[in-house]
Design a protein that fits this description.
Elements: E1 5-12, E2 16-23, E3 30-37, E4 47-52, E5 56-60, E6 69-78, E7 81-82, E8 86-91, E9 104-105, E10 113-116, H1 122-125, E11 131-138, E12 144-149, E13 154-157, E14 165-174, E15 177-180, E16 184-187
Antiparallel strand pairs: 1-2, 2-5, 3-4, 3-6, 6-7, 6-8, 9-10, 10-13, 11-12, 11-14, 14-15, 14-16
C-alpha cells in the first residue's frame, strides 16, 4: 500500500531508545512498531508494540543488546488496512569492529597497484562502517594513507616508487573506532 510515513529517525538517551516519525496523513492515528535483531531468522524473535495518538515510541534501553544491528519498522493502521511500513536500522551502542578487512593486491605496475577488500561480515561490524583507511609504506620510507567512503571496496594507489617493496593494510572505522586487518606486502615493477 501507499507510503504514509515520510521520514523516521531513532536516537538513544541514557535510559531509552526513541523512534520518531512524520506521517503525511493526519487522520492516521494508530501505528505498530516492530523491532528485531537484523541477524534474527526466527519470526517469533520479533517484538512489536501498538502506538495510538502519537508519532513517537520509547522503549527501555535494557531491552536492546549493545553492538547489535536492529531493524525497526513502523506500520501505519487506518480503518482495517495496514499501510506500507517505514523501516530503519540502528545500533543502541557501537564498539569498534571485531576485525579489520583483508587487503588483496592486484598485479602491481611500476608506480601503481589496485588494493581490494571485502566488507566485514555483519556480525563483526559492531556499528555502521563509516569509512576505510588504506595505510601503505615503502620498505624504508614513511607511512602514507588514503581514506575512502564505506561503499568503496577497492582503491588504486598511485605515485608509488618503482622496484620497491610496500606493506599495505586497511582499517575499517565506525563511530566507536577503527580496526585494522593483517598487513600484506607487494613489490612494484622495475620497468
Amino acid at each position: 500500500a501507499s507510503q504514509i510515513i515520510e521520514t523516521m529517525r531513532t536516537f538513544t538517551t541514557n535510559e531509552e531508545v526513541v523512534v520518531e516519525w512524520i506521517a503525511s496523513k493526519q487522520e492516521v492515528t494508530e501505528y505498530v512498531v516492530e523491532w528485531y535483531e537484523e541477524l534474527e531468522t526466527d519470526p517469533s524473535g520479533r517484538s512489536w508494540q501498538y502506538v495510538s495518538n502519537s508519532t513517537n515510541w520509547k522503549a527501555n534501553k535494557e531491552n536492546f543488546k549493545p553492538f547489535i544491528c536492529y531493524n525497526i519498522s513502523v506500520y501505519p493502521l487506518y480503518g482495517n488496512k495496514v499501510a506500507a511500513p517505514y523501516s530503519i536500522q540502528t545500533y543502541i551502542q557501537e564498539k569498534k569492529p571485531s576485525e579489520g578487512p583483508m587487503a588483496d593486491t592486484g598485479i602491481p605496475g611500476k608506480n601503481e597497484v589496485t588494493i581490494k577488500w571485502k566488507e566485514i561480515s555483519k556480525d563483526k561490524r559492531n556499528g555502521f562502517i563509516s569509512n576505510y583507511t588504506i595505510f601503505y609504506k615503502p620498505e624504508d620510507g614513511k607511512e602514507l594513507n588514503e581514506t575512502v567512503n564505506s561503499d568503496v571496496l577497492q582503491y588504486r594507489l598511485k605515485s608509488l616508487q618503482a622496484n620497491t617493496q610496500y606493506t599495505v593494510y586497511i582499517m575499517a572505522s565506525n563511530e566507536a573506532g577503527g580496526t585494522s586487518g593483517e598487513p600484506k606486502t607487494f613489490k612494484t615493477l622495475k620497468f
